Structures are given as C-alpha cells and as structure tokens.
Amino acid sequence: MLRNYVVGALRELARNQLYAAISILGLAVGLCAATLAGLTLRNDLTWEHFIPGYENTYLAVGVAAPTGHTPLYSRESPAFVAGILTLNLRQIRAVTRIAAADVHLRHDQVEAQERIYWADSNAFDVLRLPVFAGDPVAALRRPDGIILTRRIAAKYFGRDDAVGQSIVLDDAHVMTVTAVIEDLPVNATSLETGIFASGLGSYSRLSECDREAPELASRNAVKLCGSTYLQLGSQPHLDALQRAIDALLPQAYPKFPGMTFGAKVIRIDRVHLFDGLNPGIQARLAAVGAVALVILFAACVVFVNLSTARSVRRALEVGVRKACGASRAQLIVQFLGESVLYVVLAACVALALAEVTLPYVNAFLDSGSRLDLARDPELLASAIMGVLVVGVLAGAYPAFVLSAFRPNTVLKGVLRYAGGAMARQSLVVLQFAILIGLVLTAAVIYRQCLYATRDALRVDVDQMLIIRSDCKPVLLNELRALPGVRGAYCSSPALLDRQGFLNARLRDGSNLAIDVTALEFGAFGLYGIKPVAGVLPLDAGQDGTGPIQNERQVVINETAARRFGFAAPAAAIGEPLPLTEGPRDFMAVARRIVAVVPDFSFEVAAQKVRPTLYSAEPNGYKLINVRLTGRDIPETLEAIDRLGSSTGAAKPPERFFVSEYIQSLYSMVLREAQVFAVFAGVSLVLAALGLLGLSAATAASRTREIGIRKAMGASTADIMRMLLWEFSTPIFWASLLAWPVSGLLLRHWLDGFADHVELGPGPFVAASALALGVALLTVAGHAFLIARAKPVAALRYE
Fold first, then answer.
1. Are strands 592-597 and 655-657 parallel, antiparallel or unpaired?
2. Residue 589 pLDDT > 80, yes or no?
C-alpha cells in the first residue's frame, strides 16, 4: 500500500506541474527563511557551548547602581573581587581573571596589533578550551608564557605547532609559546582572538591592577580590571550564591553616597543574551523567531490554497477510490503523504538556498551560524522533524477537505469546489495582514533610525572628526595649524559614551547621579552649541577677550540646573555647585557655575538626557574634537595621520567622523529595519502566490456564473471590475486586522526611545496601498483571461 501512495503522489505531481512548482517554490521560500532564522537563533543561544563544562562556568558581571541613574553593567570587575569570592564562598570551586589588552606582537618580519588576554595561572582550570599542543595549565604558571590559537601560530611562525618558539610583545618582552589551542569559533564566543598571556609578569595588566589596588583604596576609588570567572559545582544553588555575593561585595567597595556596587552571576553561555550588557537582544531574537514562524505560516497558506484550488479536478478520483472501497482514513493518509512529499522537495530547495545565502546572512548579522547536517546529528534530526511537522500541518486541511467528497454526488457529475469560501478568504486575509504588518514595521523602524541620527540631534556634527589620543599641547597646536582644520579641542570619552559620572548629595539631602564630562569649553562652539545663560570661558591656547577656563569653573546643562533647584538657568550663573557630599578628589576644589548650555547628547533618541556637568580636567582628556573646513578632506586626513605618527606611536591614532559614530549607535536599529524589509519582501512573494491560488479557485468554481453573466450582456470590463473588487476585498479586511496589532506593537517599541517619531496614519495607508497594488498586479492577468472567456465554452454542456 505504501508503494501505491508514493506512486500516486508522484503521478499527481507530474500531472500538475505548474501548481506543483508554485507550491514547492512557496514552501521553499518559507522554509529557507525559517531555516536561516533558526540557525541564527541557534548560534546566539549556544555561545560558549564549545567550552567543556560551560554548564558550571559563570561570569561575575560588575554592577554599579547610582541613584537616579540606570544600573551600569560591565563584563569587568575590580581586581579585589576574585580574592574576596575565593576566600569567603566555599561553594565556588575556583575563581580566575582574564583582562583584555591590545598589544603589539612580532616574530621576525611578521608583526601586528593583537587583542590578548592576560590570565591568572588557573585560567585553564576554569575555562577548559580545546588544546592542540602543549600544556596550557602549566603555560600560565611561568611569567613569560603565552598561548596562541592554531591560526595565530601559523600567522607568525608558518606552522600551527609553535610550542617552544619565542615572540616579542610590545617590542620589550620576549614571550615563550608554551601551548597552542584550537581556533575559537567565529561570532560564538566573547573571547575574540584566543591569545592568552601569563598574568604573573610584572608588565601584565593584572599585575598592574594588583599593584594599584592599595593606592586606589586610599583614595576611595574603584577601577575595573578584567573579567572574573567562577567555576561552581554540578548542581549550583544560584539563588543562595547570589544572595551571599549581594551581602558580601558591597562591604568591600568604597562607600559613595547613594551608590551600591555588586556582581551578578551569569552562566557564560547566557552572558551574550543578558540585556544589561547587550540591550534589547532578547527582544530582537524573539522578534526574528516570531517573524520566521509567521513567514513559514504564510508559505503553508500558499500550499493550502493551491491544494484546495485543485479539488474539483481531484473530486472524481476521490469518488472512484471510495466507490472501490477506500476509506476516508486511507484517503487522508494519501493526501498527507503527498503533502509531506511536497515539503520534502521544498526542503531540498530551501537547504540549497540557505547554503548559498548563509554566508551573506552571517556577514550581515555578525553571526557564526553553520549549516552542516552531515556533522551535526542534532541539526539533522531537527530538520527531519521540522519537515514532517510542516508537511502534516500544511496538508491537514486539504486532506480532510478532499477526503470528504461523497462518491454518489461526485459520480453524478455534481462537482463543487472543496473548502468554504470563508476559509479561503480568511487565509488570504491573514497573508496580507502579515505583509502589511511587516512593511509597516520596516518603514517605522527605518524612520526612527533616520530621526535618531539626523533630526533628533541637537548638535552640528557635519565635518566633525574625533581622534582617540592623549591631548598633548604640541599635537593640538599642530592640528589647529593645518589648512583643512577649522578648530580642535580636547575632551574625555564621556562626551560620546556618557560613562563618566559622580554620585553626590544635594543640599536638600537627596542623592543624584551626575554625568561628568571633561572638555575644553571651546568644544561647545565646534558643535554649534551656545549657552542659554552665562559666558563660556575660553581655552588658554586661543585668542579672545573672555575669561580663561580653569578647573574651578564648570558648565552645566539645563536638566542639571533644574535638578539643582535653580528657578531659571540665569539664576545658576556664579553660584557654587549645590553639593554637600561626593567623591573626595572632586569635592576638594570649590567650583562655580559659569554657564548653562542646552541639553544635548549623541544618544538623545535612545536615552533621556541626564544632569550633566562639564569641567576642565586635563587629566581626563583622551579625545581630540576636530572640525574640518570641508575642503581637501583626504589631504587633511593624511596630514592628521602624519601628525599622529610623529608623536612616536606605532601607528596613527584611531580617528572617525562623529556622524559615523552616531550611525554605529543605531546600526542595530537600522539592521532591524533591513531584516524586516527582507521578511516583508518574502511575505510579498508568498502573498502573491497565495492570491494566485485564490484566483485559480475562482476560475474553477465560477466559470459557469461568468458565462451566464456574459450571455446576459455583461462586458469583459464589467467582469474585470467585479473580479478585481472581489480580489481587493481581502486587503481591506487585512488592513483592519494589521493596523491595530501593528500599531500597538510599534507604539510599545517606540516608547523604548526617549525621543521618537510620531506614529501617524501615513505609514499605515502606504503599507495597505502597497499590498493592494501587489494584489491587483498579481490577479489582473488571470482575471482578464477569465473575463474574456467565451460564454459558449462554459455553457455548451448545460
């Protein structure tokens, strides 16, 4: 019997090649989208799974929670955290630290900048990375030991077994390769390069942090120094451990008013998914998975519509089979088998498409997804199970509908189209609701990205260049002397990332976290920012008539003026900062407010502008803000690079345009828009195929009706208008379904921004208009063929 089912399915496929091709294409597109989304999700959910024992390995994520400020999370923690946890918590088997650093490596003629990890001697007891050669545990117990991956070893030594070879670090320290580990997977681990150097050396970052710890403690200061990894037992009691850490660590940190410190223990394969370190990642992954399932559903709808559209042709077959003794259950099995065959063929096409497109998807999403069914039994089993599930679900409705024909009715020649009109219309409505929703989502996300990077900015970033470099007076003066430079001023990195802040107590007794940015006040002019009250002091190196800035003079923004209790910005001018308690080094100098500037931030659309204080602190200057004239930009950039190289650095300092930096802040938002746009394109194809199935059903079921209408005097244009109106009706119902659902979801998404676009009616109408245009273009040709058919062809057997 199984042989009969297979032969029957293949004959049906051969008899209806056009329908079969459309069905397989629709299913293949849906399965390909679902496969790519599934591989991407699987990659993100399996970070660090290549590390043996990852189930018991955790990262102590540093947490600082200032009053009035969102909690700050970091992969790094102070140097003393590892020792405190080791001494006080017995449930922790081992604690180790690794600290990332960018260094210069050289062997003979091969040299390059590399990211390395200074590691404690027991690092490979906790992070048991796959070993190729040597003993990594013993390697880190000698001060000059260094561990390379096979790829890095081949890069510098021409072979991957480089144990015993020497390599020079920062042109000063000769390191010995004591072990080689396997190459780490791309975009599947937080360890970027896999180069580990012994932290026992006096020049390592870990040793420097340990030496600085007493001096920092004397100043009541904290410095982050590397990531702290924990190895726990096979059945860790995480809640109890977290409570113990929450009670223990705050006692070791310096006491700041309104500030709490601690650490959150997260398993290493879940760190990548932690919103505190990777904001919004869980929502993005959930959205990708949900949309992929919706696309797969739309592909199944295409198959259902086309299957039921052929029911009139298969009615006689069903009647004959039943008259010969076939039961309905046997017919259901037959039709389900045909459905699974279609899905199997579509899956083959989908896997081929996925294999071709996966490298581009990985490059676009910075993913390390792999499609290797032969070497991944778990993935192969999932693929087989997915094909069976999709085949059964997609074929269930057609199977039950087609098997319901009664032989006495069918064999009398009374043939009716299977499946209710309401069901068919509902499926098409759902398809176009999906299309409208995806188009609308992509459009709104893209509008928000443009708004955040252009309209929402309160600063002029045109031709603004940032150079990451110590702000040395000689370099600054040479920059200002270049013909293509209009001005140059120094600032701290906090001008961009807002990571500098102080926690202080106000005169009214409340605690307040204040963003602090060190900069030369001339930088305000470069960005086109004018004070709303007071006068900005001038930089000592510039000519002018105003006062010269010093560390006792501070500038605040309007939010800070309000939070400090001043009735108006002008009331703050000349007043001392109303702080009664704060960091010891900051409070040591009496400071007065000399100007109030408008609220601004490069992340203004993503986060609300917080109280901000700007002061002249030369020790914090790590950026140079340069405004170019806009003429001879390539030549000016080359001249800037030459100036950077002349300072003695191994290479010119990093430089970038502020506009590029702002674009990078919202790159994930833009990528979301592009992903939804791609999904919308896929949905458009599937919606067109689904509507093509509905038009085919109309041709089969209404031939006589149309013949009678034409015999009674209806013209081809009249029939066309009637058919196009009927084919357009699902779009209106789809709009009524998609608009409120999409509106609620998009409103919730936009509320995550401090400043966002208005969700007006324009995008909704445009998305529905696009869907309507697709619908009309899809069915116009088919409707024309139906409308111009001669009535005699439909009525000659009546």
1. unpaired
2. no
Say if residue 58 is in the same domain as residue 166.
yes
Long-range contacts, 674-678 (Cβ 8 Å, 24+): 674/364, 674/442, 675/288, 675/365, 676/291, 676/438, 676/441, 676/442, 676/445, 677/442, 677/446
- Residue 536 lies in domain: 464-660
Residue whose tokens read 């273009």: 777
In total, how many domains does the chain have? 4
Together in a domain, 632 and 521: yes
Q: Which long-range contacts (CB under 8 A, 24 or more apart) does 528-531 make?
A: 528/459, 528/460, 529/458, 529/459, 529/597, 529/598, 529/600, 530/597, 530/598, 531/555, 531/595, 531/596, 531/597
- Radius of gyration over alpha carbons of the chain, in Å? 34
Alpha helices in 69-149 (DSSP H): 80-88, 123-126, 136-139
How many whole angstroms separate alpha carbon 241 and alpha carbon 249? 12
Residues 662/667/672/673 CA torsion (nearest 10 deg): 60
Same domain, 165 and 241: yes
Q: Residue 285 domain-assigned?
A: no
Q: In this structure, are 35 and 24 located in the same domain?
A: yes
- Decide: 99 and 225 in contact? Cβ < 8 Å: yes
Task: Order the strands of the 485-491 sheet from edge to edge.
Answer: 485-491, 623-628, 464-468, 655-657
User: Judging by DSSP bridges, how do beta strands 72-74 and 57-66 pair with one another?
Assistant: antiparallel
* Confidence check: pLDDT of 211 > 50: yes
Per residue in 247-258, pLDDT (tens digit) is 888 888 877 766
**Per the structure block, which two tokens stand in for 733?**
């119902």
Same domain, 625 and 687: no
Supply the mean pLDDT for the chain. Answer: 81
Same domain, 618 and 531: yes
Burial class (CB in 10 A: 0-12, 13-18, 19+), 23: buried
Query: In whole angstroms, what is the distance from residue 463 CA to residue 637 CA?
Result: 12
Whether residue 707 is contained in a domain is answered as: yes
Same domain? For 606 and 682 the reply is no
